[in-house]
TrEMBL record:
Gene giving rise to this polypeptide: nnrE
Domain YjeF C-terminal: 222-486
Natural source organism: Algoriphagus aquatilis
Classification lineage: Bacteria, Pseudomonadati, Bacteroidota, Cytophagia, Cytophagales
Protein name: Bifunctional NAD(P)H-hydrate repair enzyme
Cofactor: binding details: Binds 1 potassium ion per subunit.
Signal peptide: none
Length: 489
């Protein structure tokens, strides 16, 4: 998994890479520019597009100049806009690229930018080098860039955005941020959505081993990381090996949630799925998911007969006693979602009773209900870390870049998913997937990594086909394709 390091450490990352790969820092910058241009030319942007590039005096500006030179070579019409008063303070690689500006590429002051003259703006004014509050003149430049109504693409970071903390001033509002090597932490904060826009991470060939020299408890989960966490089953495996799963879910009027979680657990590979539901509602489960079994709220249940238990989707808020019964009688990690989280929020004494290693899956609203309001995402994450470590629990904070908060303090940002997943029932599907992986004998960490990533991947596949018409059942239908895409049978 890719370590997310601090903005202030990027210069050291740069130096270590340059030494390790025996290249110059100019060559590393060229690599970054080439990867950007490769991406840009694949974006169906017409060659007749008029592209404005704002460039600053540091290496972010150097990237912009190199990008301008390469795009000019591809036939784009490029106009550079310098964001500084004098050429004397340029970083050495920015200076080198400045000297390489090709004949035919216009270069003016940022003050002369006319928004009507362009189809696209590339923002390479400031990157991870910003320190402290944005200076007055820089704020004017940011406003100028933001006055452009068309597509704005930020290089590495939207200018003005600090790399690791919440932003208290106006930054460039990019439609897309193309960031190099690893996602800068602040690009993953929901409060920065209007600045970062869509995020693209481009590999610039820095080996993972170099990141390991930095201390960080933040990680970024990519598709290539997944296989190592999946279990393999052999030809003598039988349905018992794939786990006996119990889903405690559903109440009158909310049986859909139980059905989604149940179907999802079956599609994720569970051999035997039982649903604990109100007896009156048994017909709905039997007719919609014939592969599942049902037991009823009022009967005696031997919880320890199951390999994993997921509790919460559509459960109703009157199940405090049931929740306590599960905690008292099941010693292994459980998955807690939806109404189970609200019951917890109302009865915090229960935190101490939750089996160690369990997984709580709140979205931002549920997190607030459980733990209160936070001014910034970084404060929220710090609280989640302390909570997970002190209670020896895991937490999946659901959102655009879902964060897997582990009981050892590590926090892993997910990279899969799409905006069409913001629809009813998608959380119930995740509960089914996590419970299923736990039941198949995955550790809580492996269950969360595989469940969260694959949930996002299935969402992407469903979103491609169904766009905004996507519903949670479409996501379940794509779980098999998500296994195939990962090469997991
Ligand atoms: N190590 C890496 O991985 C690579 C980094 N590269 C680029 O290098 C960038 C970092 O370059 P630098 O370290 O030169 O920094 P930047 O170019 O991001 O910023 C430096 C400039 O910001 C100004 N500045 C600092 N604080 C400010 C404030 N509060 N208000 C206004 N201006 C302020 C400084 O005066 C300086 O001129 C990255 O964002 C990336 O774009 C790329 O060249 C590729 C390789
Ligand atoms: K930038």
């Amino acid at each position: 998994m890719l370590r997310i390091i601090k903005g202030s450490e990027v210069a050291t990352l740069d130096e270590l890479t340059v030494v390790h790969q025996r290249i110059s820092s100019f060559e590393l910058m060229e690599r970054a520019a080439l990867s950007f241009v490769n991406w840009f030319t694949n974006q169906a942007m017409s060659k007749s597009s008029r592209v404005a590039i704002f460039f600053g005096p540091g290496n972010n500006g150097g990237d912009g100049l190199a990008i301008g030179r390469l795009l000019h070579k591809h036939g784009y019409s490029i106009h550079l806009f310098s964001c500084f008063e004098s050429n004397s303070g340029l970083s050495s690689d920015c200076q080198k690229n400045f000297e390489l500006i090709p004949f035919g590429v216009l270069n003016s002051s940022w003050k002369e930018f006319q928004k009507e003259d362009f189809d696209c703006v590339i923002d390479s004014f400031l990157g991870v080098g910003i320190r402290g509050e944005l200076r007055h003149q820089a704020k004017n430049i940011v406003s100028k860039i933001n006055s452009f109504p068309g597509k704005k693409i930020a290089v590495d970071l939207p200018s003005g955005l600090p790399a690791d903390t919440s932003c208290l001033w106006e930054c460039v509002q990019a439609d897309i941020t193309v960031t190099f090597a690893f996602p800068k932490l602040s690009l993953l904060f929901p409060e920065h959505a209007k600045y970062s826009g869509e995020m693209v991470v481009l590999d610039i060939g820095i080996p993972d081993s170099i990141y390991e020299q930095f201390n960080s408890y933040f990680f970024f989960l990519r598709e290539i990381d997944l296989c190592a966490f999946h279990k393999t089953f052999h030809r003598f495996s039988h349905k018992g090996d794939f786990g006996k799963v119990l889903l405690v879910a559903g109440s009158k009027g909310k049986m859909g949630a139980a059905m989604l979680a149940t179907k999802s657990a079956l599609r994720t590979g569970s051999g035997l799925v039982t649903c604990l539901v109100p007896e009156d509602e048994r017909c709905s489960i039997h007719s919609s998911v014939p592969e599942a079994m049902a037991v009823f709220y009022d009967s005696e249940i031997n919880f320890s007969a199951y390999d994993s238990i997921g509790i919460g989707p559509g459960l109703g808020l009157d199940k405090l006693v049931l929740l306590e019964r599960v905690f008292d009688n099941f010693p292994y990690p459980v998955v807690l979602d939806a109404d189970a989280l609200t019951i917890l929020a109302r009865n915090p004494y229960l935190f101490a009773k939750i089996p160690k290693g369990s997984i709580l899956t709140p979205h931002l609203g549920e997190f607030e209900r459980l733990f209160g309001n936070f001014e910034s995402h970084i404060d929220r994450l710090k609280f989640a870390q302390d909570f997970c470590v002190s209670h020896q629990l895991n937490l999946v904070l659901k959102g655009a870049n879902t964060v897997i908060c582990l009981s050892d303090g590590r926090q892993i940002f997910n990279s899969s998913g799409c905006r069409h997943m913001a629809t009813a029932g998608v959380g119930d599907v995740l509960t089914g997937m996590l419970t299923s992986f736990l039941g198949q004998g995955y550790s809580p960490e492996a269950a969360m990594i595989c469940g969260v990533f694959q949930h996002g991947l299935a969402g992407e596949l469903a979103g491609m086909e169904k766009v905004r018409s996507m519903i949670a059942s479409d996501l379940i239908d794509q779980i098999p394709a998500s296994f195939k895409k990962l090469g997991v049978e």
